[in-house]
Amino acid sequence: MPRWSFSIVFLLAWLAAVAVQPVWGQGSDPGTIRGAVIDQSGARVPNAAVTITDMATLSTRELATNEMGEFEATGLMSGRYRVVFQAQEFNRLEVAPVVVRPGDTVRVDGRLEISRASEVMTVTEAAPVIQMENPTVGATLDNQQVTSLPRDSRDYTSFLYLSPNIAQGQADGSFKFLGAQSYGASFSLDGHRTNGGVFGEPTTSQPSLETIGELTVLSNTFTAEYAGIANIRLTTKRGGTAYRGSLFYDNRNSALAAWSLNDKNAAAPFTPTPARPEYPYPRFNQNEFGGSVP
After folding, report:
1. Model pTM?
2. Which domains, and CATH codes, for the chain?
C-alpha cells in the first residue's frame, strides 16, 4: 500500500476518535438550581427524589439528594422551572415557578412534612429571596421588557444606560463603566464573545430585539468566570411547546426628536446668511417594520 494511503487511514482513524469524544455544550450561559431537603425538625433527608421540569418545554430532569440531603442541577437554560420533592413517608412538595436567569445559581430548599394522607404541598408565588449564592450585582431584562420599554432605536445597547454604573461616553454608542473606564467590558451572545474594535466595543452586528430572550448586565463583584470590568450578556429566546409570533413597526422622525447637545452647541454661534438662513437641523424620517416566527 502506498505511503500516502497509510496517511489517509491514520487521518480517518484520528477523526473518528475525535468524533466520539464527549462534546460539552458551548455558546450558552447555563444556570444552576441547588438546595437541600429537610424534614419538619430540620434534619436532612437523604435519597429524596428531586424532579426539575422546564415549564416551557416540559422536559424533566430527575436526581436524588446525597447523604447530606443536598442536590444540584447544572447546565439549565434560562427560564421557569417546577421543582418537585418526594420521599417515603413524606408529602409531595412542589415549588413553582423557579426563575433561572443566564448564569444564575438559584437556591431552592424543600421542607417536607410527614404524610398523613395523600396530600400535595404546592408553593407558588413565593416571596423573592435574596441571592446568597454569589455576591454579583446585576440586572436582567426579559424579551417583553426589551421590546416594550421606550427607546429611540432598535439598538439593544440603549438599555445599558439603565444600569447606574454605565453612562454614555464621549460619542454615541460609546460607554463609560464604573464612572471612568470607557473600555474593558465584555460583550457576549449566547456565551460567545462579541467584542470588536481596538478597545473592545460591541460589534455592529446585532440580533433583532425580537430574538433576544434576556439581556443581563453584571456591573459589580461578579465571579472570575466572567471577564471584563462589566459583563453584558445576550441570550436568544428559547423554543417552547406553543407557536408564537410578533410584528413590529418603528418610526424615527426628526419632528418628534429632541435636540442633541451637539446640535445645541453648534446652533448657539450660528450666524444666518442668505445662502443658509436657518441652522441646518438634521431632518430624518426612518420607518422600520418586520416580524418574527419561532
Report:
1. 0.64
2. 31-123 (2.60.40.1120), 137-236 (2.170.130.10), 246-292 (no CATH)
Terminal C-alpha separation, the chain: 53
- Give me the phi and psi of 107, to 5 degrees please: -100, 130
- Strand pairing class (79-86; 49-54): antiparallel
In which residue are the cell numbers 455544550 written? 25
- Residues 241-291: pLDDT tens digits? 777 788 888 888 888 877 777 888 888 888 889 988 888 887 888 888 888
The cell 431632518 sits on which residue?
Answer: 283
**DSSP H helix total and E strand total for the chain:** 3, 20
- For residue 179, give every residue at least 6 positions away whose Cβ sits within 8 Å of its Cβ, in sequence order, or none: 165, 167
Q: How far is CA 35 from CA 69, 71, 91, in A?
A: 9, 6, 18
The tens digit of pLDDT for each residue in 178-188 reads 776 777 788 88
